[in-house]
Design goal:
There is one protein chain. Helix 3 crosses helix 6 and helix 5 runs antiparallel to helix 6. The chain is mainly alpha-helical. The protein has a single domain, classed as Di-copper center containing domain from catechol oxidase (di-copper center containing domain from catechol oxidase), CATH 1.10.1280.10. A hairpin with a 5-residue loop joins strand 2 and strand 3. It contains 7 helices and 4 strands. The two termini are 20 Å apart. The structure holds copper (II) ion. Copper (II) ion (CU) binds next to loops.
Length: 291
């Protein structure tokens, strides 16, 4: 059983193993979606871009629907498994970032995810292993036309969208049911917690191909954890619910990761119901992180 933890609790060796696994997936594992044009890491940016209606649009778009949490759960779990395979290390798991920049909560350090973009150099990240100068992390998937080859960040560029406060998180966690427009738990979590973090990090994270920035996976890992925490805090609530207008978002709906008639990124499929128990997917969070 894989255990996911706060990045702050990782040892330096665990941190560098995680970064190294990303660099292997980025440089040593061939793409399945666009062989010869990108890497397996880049396939995840491609899938996400497609899910946002660009490139080869995925129907249904899981964003702003009850599928948001189940769909991203599978996306990041598949990424985690591919990291393990790339590094030949079953101990690799995706850590989470709790959206705090205070002290050890800040993941944007030179020994981990690298820092903010450099305003004098196209907002490119210039510290850490993902800096373009290190020559092991080049962007290969863009939303539309070819863009900058460097990973870009622009912290706090949207002053009206700060990182979520603990109070904002608490407010969201008190919402029920799972889905109810606009104030259900998932609705609120996507719009009030998830979206502002993408905007706050800025650069690649603010675009449809946001998995280009590895922090995407730490961000979505925390959202995934919050779903588990919400389930524990509201034990009488169904862990998933939908609405009549979402005919593609039922318990027995199969999650879609590719446009019709195009290559699937992986052979397995999952229904929404098969995503509801993380242990069925062979991972879990520590109990103390769920309380
Ligand atoms: Cu998304």
């Amino acid at each position: 059983m894989d255990i996911r933890r706060n990045h702050r609790d990782m040892t330096p060796a665990q941190k560098s193993a995680f970064i190294e696994a990303i660099l292997k997936l980025k440089n040593e594992v061939p793409s399945i979606l666009r062989p010869g044009r990108q890497s397996r890491y880049d396939d995840f940016a491609q899938i996400h871009k497609n899910s946002m209606g660009l490139g080869d649009p995925i129907i249904p778009n899981p964003h702003r629907t009850p599928l948001f949490f189940p769909w991203h759960r599978i996306l990041i779990r598949q990424f985690e498994r591919e990291l393990q395979a790339a590094a030949r290390d079953p101990g690799i798991t995706i850590p989470y970032w709790n959206w705090s920049m205070v002290g050890p909560d800040n993941p944007f350090t030179a020994d981990f995810l690298g820092g903010n973009g450099d305003p004098f150099r196209e907002q490119r990240v210039s510290t850490g292993r993902f800096a373009l100068e290190e020559q092991r992390f080049q962007i290969n998937v863009w939303d539309t036309h070819n863009g900058d080859p460097g990973l870009q960040r622009n912290f706090g560029n949207a002053p009206d969208e700060p990182l979520p406060s603990t109070q904002a998180i608490d407010t969201t966690m008190s919402r029920t049911p799972f889905w109810s427009h606009p104030l259900g738990w998932a609705n609120h979590a996507e719009m009030e917690l998830h979206n502002p973090v993408h905007s706050w990090v800025g650069g690649n994270m603010a675009r449809a191909s946001s998995p280009n920035d590895p922090v995407f996976f730490l961000h979505h890992c925390y959202l995934d954890l919050l779903w588990e925490r919400w389930k524990r805090q509201h034990p009488t609530e169904p862990p998933f619910s939908s609405a009549p207008d979402f005919e593609h978002a039922r318990m027995n709906s199969t999650l879609i990761f590719q446009a019709e008639n195009l290559t699937a990124p992986w052979p397995q499929t999952w229904t929404v119901m098969q995503t509801l128990d993380t242990e069925e997917l062979n991972y879990r969070y520590e109990l103390r992180d769920l309380e």
